[in-house]
């Protein structure tokens, strides 16, 4: 059942709860994803046996409002409202750019108890930072020009989708759902500190006051695994590699790792 909270700036944020007992977990989706499309639903189902799992639509996606001018602080306030609905204390489970958002929220005093960050896609080389800056500028141009479909195509190409596959997707029934959330690609770039090319935020990570677990997939590209390792090192965090997994991690593999981390306290 969909429920709603109101963020600090008045934006309505949609969420739902799986499970009725145990420690609270808030799942933070990455780019293009929300409750109806992405990992948060399957992860919630996997964890619901022993946890109360809150999955929500980040602003501008699904049933949540967009609010006014974007700032990462507004998304932290959205998380604060969801954590408050969870009882004021929760573990954040972030995937991809959602992991970057969870890490940025962890030290903000909103009741985060710990963070599990799966493959936050920070940049670790000058080449990656330059490529990310070019991508971000292009996505911003697409959105401002009223071409959200071009923004989606740019994102998919950026993350490695072959151009023929992108062309096929443009003709598929799911394409309008992608286009609907395309403006939020700009938001995700900001979460990753896009002005600087999405570097690992070393100073922020070093000061986090909560336990952090960073994980990656053993079959993921080297650039994502390098980013996960660098994030864990900067945060002084536990670092785990899930054998046989990719960026599209299986809930029945990631879920038990998350549950074990929470159980250790």
UniProtKB/TrEMBL annotation:
<protein>
    <recommendedName>
        <fullName>AB hydrolase-1 domain-containing protein</fullName>
    </recommendedName>
</protein>
<dbReference type="GO" id="GO:0003824">
    <property type="term" value="F:catalytic activity"/>
</dbReference>
<dbReference type="InterPro" id="IPR000073">
    <property type="entry name" value="AB_hydrolase_1"/>
</dbReference>
<dbReference type="Pfam" id="PF12697">
    <property type="entry name" value="Abhydrolase_6"/>
</dbReference>
<dbReference type="InterPro" id="IPR029058">
    <property type="entry name" value="AB_hydrolase_fold"/>
</dbReference>
<dbReference type="InterPro" id="IPR050471">
    <property type="entry name" value="AB_hydrolase"/>
</dbReference>
<feature type="domain" description="AB hydrolase-1">
    <location>
        <begin position="35"/>
        <end position="247"/>
    </location>
</feature>
